[in-house]
């Protein structure tokens, strides 16, 4: 059985040399962003996980762009919560030194909402301290686009609202009970360099996660892994704690529910909303 003893956890934390944080949708739940596999994990009548595939993209680019347009609009008004800030403090020397003085921190998030980086940038600006920890968005970012053409290297941050005029209002049409609009390919976002279709720069099933080599290296050198708000059903993120454990490291799970994939192999398990648990248990 994993321990729930906060003092024992803090001792492990204070002695850690390399900390790997693996976070998922539960971290952003308190910011008002639906998790993938929980309630609200559907868009219109579609399962979000089914849409997160290359097959869905090839089948209906209009639908996938409408889905991303909707999520870009949803997320732009959302703010980081206390869970994001607690983890961001782990990446800023003046806070981390209090709880884990000798540790490096690599925060690998599966979330594409940008809130982990937003919290880190905000705390860095307000405290005037440079982060020394790293946040890696392994499944990409909602506001990044990449050219769909195999021979074009265009890739950019795109905060436009709407990303193209034809997507504006598509959600309202469906919400009003009308059939799903079909946006013509020519009216979807296009590459300014080669005029081919753009796609969201996110990682769908079957695709290679971003910065995977760096992530695996961080896992191999970690002696403590915090697994936060993820169902741990999706590889390779779900395999990272196991990697840490095989190297003799400890695992601490923070989740609203017990018995997630990693509960059995965890050394510590803190069941509850991570937006309050993290700051309390980390002491940040
Ligand atoms: C709270 C809380 C609160 C709620 N406080 N907790 C068989 C066939 C085909 C493929 C495979 C196969 N077997 C394995 C694969 C590989 C596949 C995979 O894992 N499939 C499984 C589903 C079977 N993986 C891939 O294809 C990945 N690529 C890959 O493996 O490449 C090969 C490779 C590996 C290594 C090196 C080189 C190459 C890519 C996976 C891409 C996943 N993409 C998505 C979509 C992103 C874009 C988009 O958003 O549209 O990423 S899917 C979706 O799931 C999204 C999420 O990041 C990801 C994980 O979900 P997450 O975060 O865990 O959310 P939930 O909803 O599942 O869980 C929420 C949790 O929070 C719950 O536990 C709650 O209890 C908790 N919670 N509120 C604390 N307040
Ligand atoms: Zn292009």
Could you describe the 3D structure shown?
- The protein has 284 residues and is of the alpha/beta class.
- It folds into 2 domains: 1-33 and 80-139 and 208-284, TPP-binding domain (Rossmann fold); 34-77 and 145-202, 2-Layer Sandwich (SIR2/SIRT2 'Small Domain').
- It has helices spanning 6-15, 26-29, 48-51, 54-59, 61-76, 82-89, 93-99, 115-127, 170-175, 212-221, 240-246, 274-282, and strands spanning 18-23, 42-43, 46-47, 104-109, 134-137, 140-147, 155-157, 198-202, 224-228, 250-255, 268-271.
- A 6-stranded parallel β-sheet has the order 5-4-1-9-10-11, sandwiched between helices. The protein has a 3-stranded antiparallel β-sheet with strand order 7-6-8. The chain has a two-stranded antiparallel sheet with strand order 2-3.
- Helix 6 packs across helix 8 (115-127), helix 6 packs parallel to helix 12 and helix 10 (212-221) runs parallel beside helix 11.
- Bound molecules: ligand BJW and zinc ion.
- Ligand BJW is lined by residues 24-26, 29-30, 35-38, 41, 49, 52, 110, 112, 139, 202-209, 212, 229-231, 233-236, 255-257, 260, 273-275.
- GO terms for molecular function: histone deacetylase activity, NAD-dependent; metal ion binding; NAD+ binding.
- Keywords: Metal-binding, Mitochondrion, NAD, Transferase, Zinc.
């Amino acid at each position: 059985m994993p321990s729930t003893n906060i003092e024992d956890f803090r001792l492990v934390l204070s002695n850690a040399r390399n900390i790997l944080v693996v976070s998922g949708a539960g971290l952003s739940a308190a910011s008002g962003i639906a998790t993938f596999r929980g309630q609200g994990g559907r868009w219109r009548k579609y399962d979000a996980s089914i849409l997160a595939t290359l097959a869905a993209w090839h089948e209906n680019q209009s639908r996938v762009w409408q889905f991303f347009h909707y999520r870009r609009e949803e997320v732009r008004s959302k703010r980081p919560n206390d869970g994001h800030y607690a983890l961001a403090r782990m990446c800023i020397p003046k806070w981390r030194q209090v709880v884990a003085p000798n540790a490096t921190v690599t925060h690998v998030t599966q979330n594409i909402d940008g809130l982990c980086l937003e919290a880190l940038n905000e705390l860095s600006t307000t405290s005037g301290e440079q982060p020394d920890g790293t946040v890696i968005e392994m499944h990409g970012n909602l506001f990044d686009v990449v050219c769909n053409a195999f021979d074009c290297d265009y890739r950019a941050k795109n905060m436009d609202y709407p990303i193209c005029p034809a997507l504006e209002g598509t959600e309202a049409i469906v919400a009003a009970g009308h059939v799903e609009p079909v946006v013509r390919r020519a009216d979807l976002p296009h590459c300014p360099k080669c005029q081919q279709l753009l796609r969201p720069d996110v990682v769908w099933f079957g695709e290679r996660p971003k910065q995977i080599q760096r992530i695996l290296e961080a896992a191999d050198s970690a002696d403590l892994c915090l697994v936060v708000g993820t169902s741990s059903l999706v590889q390779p993120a779900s395999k990272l704690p196991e990697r840490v454990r095989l190297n003799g490291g400890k695992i601490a799970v923070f989740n609203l529910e017990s018995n997630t994939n990693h509960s059995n192999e965890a050394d510590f398990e803190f069941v509850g909303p991570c937006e309050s648990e993290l700051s309390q248990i980390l002491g940040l």
